[in-house]
Design a protein that fits this description.
Distance between the termini: 29 Å
Number of helices: 8
Structural class: alpha/beta
Radius of gyration: 17 Å
Shape: globular
Length: 238
């Protein structure tokens, strides 16, 4: 791994996105790296805010409306484009979602550890709430704090490094276009290919779940309505 490509897919929720950007830009990262935001059809007003943030904070901005006419979510296209760029540079692909705040040393430690652990395909930081308690999507890790855990459960892409070994072994062109999210698919494929996935409960990142897709909050507040919308409108296909 020669460098790290950090990406953040964004759909509106610009206030949380700015917090994510500021935490990444403040990272103590010695690796050669780039940072790219993929704007997935945010409103015109929010797209203008992203363009201004890109100008001021000096990150790359890719508007997915320039790459595809399909409506959001376009995570498959994000992953395919990011994989191509990472492979060309022999880079690890580090996904930090737009509702996550990383600590100054999170990305450095995650990248270094991915090289030290045997056959690492995925290295994921655990998510916590503002009080430091492990939260969704890693509730299963409660009680296992301050560890590095080899896991067969899927790794969410909240703050997750996909190693060059995984990127070389699995072509994201094979991702099912009928799905919306691919963390489950890619996590399982990593294991199928003989790689190992690790969850770092000693590297917590603050997660404000579903800030960019508030309909998902219905899963907790009104699950019957959430699953009715999910199946009648074809939302959140994993």
């Amino acid at each position: 791994m020669k460098e790290i490509h950090i990406i953040t897919p964004v759909k509106d929720s610009i206030d949380t996105t700015i917090e994510t950007v500021e935490s990444i830009m403040s990272s103590q990262l010695s690796w050669p790296h780039s940072y790219t935001i993929y704007n997935d059809n945010s409103t015109p007003e929010n797209t203008l805010r992203l363009k201004e943030q890109a100008r001021v904070k000096k990150f790359n901005l890719i508007n997915l409306s320039d790459l595809t006419s399909t409506p959001s979510p376009n995570y498959r296209i994000v992953l395919q484009d990011a994989q191509k760029r990472a492979l060309e540079a022999n880079a690890g692909l580090l996904i930090v979602e737009s509702d996550v705040i990383v600590a100054p040393d999170t990305l450095e430690r995650l990248a270094n550890a991915s090289l030290e652990l045997p056959n690492c395909g995925i290295a994921a930081a655990v998510t916590v709430d503002d009080n430091g308690e492990i939260n969704y999507p890693y509730l299963h890790a409660r009680g296992k704090e301050n560890q590095v855990i080899e896991t067969r459960k899927h790794c969410s892409f909240c703050c997750t490094l996909l190693t060059p070994e995984l990127l070389k072994a699995f072509d994201f062109g094979q991702l099912n276009p009928k799905k919306h999210w691919y963390d489950v698919t890619i996590s399982h494929m990593s294991l199928t290919l003989g790689l190992k996935n690790y969850l770092f409960t000693n590297l917590p990142v603050v997660h404000h779940p579903h800030s960019s897709r508030p309909h998902k909050l219905l899963k907790y507040k009104n699950p019957l309505k959430y699953y009715w919308l999910k199946y009648t409108r074809g939302l959140d296909k994993i």
